[in-house]
Write a structure and sequence with these properties.
Elements (H helix, E strand, L loop, with lengths): L2 H7 L2 E2 L6 E4 L1 E2 L5 E7 L4 E8 L5 E4 L21 E11 L2 E13 L7 E11 L10 E4 L13 H4 L4 E5 L11 E4 L1 E2 L7 E3 L7 E9 L2 E2 L6 E4 L6 E3 L1 H14 L24 E5 L2 E5 L1 H4 E4 L2 E4 L1 E3 L5 E3 L1 H6 L2 E4 L4 E4 L14 E2 L7 H13 L1 H19 L12
Parallel strand pairs: 5-10, 6-9, 17-24, 18-23, 21-27
Antiparallel strand pairs: 1-13, 2-12, 3-4, 4-5, 4-8, 6-10, 7-8, 8-9, 11-12, 11-25, 14-26, 15-16, 15-17, 15-19, 18-24, 19-20, 21-22, 25-26
């Protein structure tokens, strides 16, 4: 059995809190959502658990054009409290807006509920309306929160959580989010979290095969709200140039989407991300998606100045987030962090329709980092010039 499966099965509860396992629906190997319950009596919602943000929101029953099916009916909840102000949250491909409320939130298998300030969304832009999930639960730090204070992690007193993404939607061990658990045998490196808002670690470089590529980024963000791998322009251009050298049949080398219609996963070289001082490798089967005889690297460029590691990376490496110690651990087989332990990213024909949805998912939630990232760069520039402490801004990256 793969070591990550063993780690999932051996997950231990903390000394003070029982372990909570939240199954995640694996829609197409790139979209994952689980369930939470809000209100008294409880109302169930499918949500994205997002390590790249810190707010909680679900659609209100007043929203006539929102994603998913379930709607939050505040009038039906005896524990609802109106916070008496509105909010708006911006993402890369749109925005959501609504009222701020407080209510009880419970998790599957939990014996009690906790009160969380959250958004009751009354309007969504068209792109976000297309998601299968109804809302979002942020698993980031307080500096990223604009409405949820205390954050979900603080309100539920979560000291550690971990994310396991199953190889395929039909895998016997399902994708799951584990709360209040600690992994005793994580076999790879300990990496301190280096930014207050995001789960961010030091980025030490990028390799294709054994060739080190040009880079400018020094930070990588672990973001479960992003489907793909997002690279700044310099890193993306370096990767594409190298792939075009190694994979002669690759199309798009002169610009445009990069894909190949006369190759398979084995045609693509290993791609290694150096996090801290450890290299974590993705084989072609980990980062290349093949469907209808077309293979496409699941990598996109972004305007961010940092690398974003999305669900493609989590699928290859089981990850534990230590909230108390502000650190991250990744699980590797005893043989090393070489990737290629999972079945290839393949889609059966009946699932091919969700490819478009996957791209929307990537852009709408993952590229929310573009807005925050730009603010990060501005804040750091001002800080260097003024030599004064930065104010508590939305990004919180100081």
């Amino acid at each position: 059995m793969h070591s990550a499966l063993v780690l999932v099965s051996l997950a231990l509860a903390s000394a003070t809190r029982p372990l909570v396992r939240i199954p995640l629906v694996n829609l197409d190997q790139l979209q994952f959502y689980g369930s939470i319950e809000i209100g008294s009596p409880p109302q169930s919602f499918r949500v994205i658990f997002d390590t790249g943000s810190s707010d909680v929101w679900v659609p209100s029953h007043d929203c006539t054009a929102c994603s998913g099916v379930a709607r939050y009916n505040r009038s039906a909840s005896s524990t609802y409290a109106d916070e008496m102000y509105r909010f708006q949250a911006y993402y890369g491909s749109g925005a959501v807006a609504g009222d701020v409320a407080s209510d009880a939130i419970a998790l599957p298998g939990a014996s009690s509920a906790s009160f969380v300030r959250m958004g009751s969304v009354t309007a969504q832009d068209a792109t976000i309306q297309k998601f299968a999930s109804e809302g979002i639960v942020g698993l980031g730090f307080p500096a990223l929160a604009s409405i949820s204070a205390p954050t979900f992690l603080e309100a539920l007193d979560i000291a550690i959580f971990s994310l396991y993404i199953s190889p395929l939607p039909t895998s016997p061990v399902p994708s799951q989010l584990l709360l209040h658990g600690r992994q005793t045998e994580l076999s790879s490196s300990f990496m301190p979290h280096i930014r207050q808002g995001f789960w961010a670690v030091r980025f030490g470089g990028l390799r294709v095969h054994d060739a080190s590529l040009q880079r400018a980024a020094t930070v990588a963000i672990l973001d479960s709200g992003t489907s793909l791998l997002l690279l700044p322009h310099i890193e993306y251009a370096s990767v594409v140039a190298r792939l075009c050298t190694v994979v002669p049949a690759l199309d798009g080398c002169d610009g445009g989407p990069v894909s190949c219609s006369s190759c398979d996963h084995t045609s693509f070289p290993p791609l290694t991300f150096v996090l801290g001082s450890t290299g974590f490798t993705l084989q072609g089967s980990d980062y290349v998606r093949c469907e209808l005889n077309v293979c496409t690297p699941q990598i996109e460029t972004s305007t961010n100045s940092f690398v974003v590691l999305g669900d493609i990376f989590f699928r290859a490496y089981y990850t534990a987030f230590d909230v108390t110690n502000r650190s991250v651990r990744l699980a590797c087989p005893a043989s090393g962090c070489h990737g290629g332990q999972r079945p290839p990213l393949l889609l059966s024909p009946f699932l091919s329709w969700v490819l478009y949805a996957s791209m929307l998912y990537t852009k709408a939630f993952g590229l929310a980092l573009s807005v925050v990232g730009a603010k990060w760069v501005l804040d750091r520039s001002l800080l260097m010039r003024t030599k004064q402490p930065s104010p508590a801004l939305l990004s919180g990256i100081v």
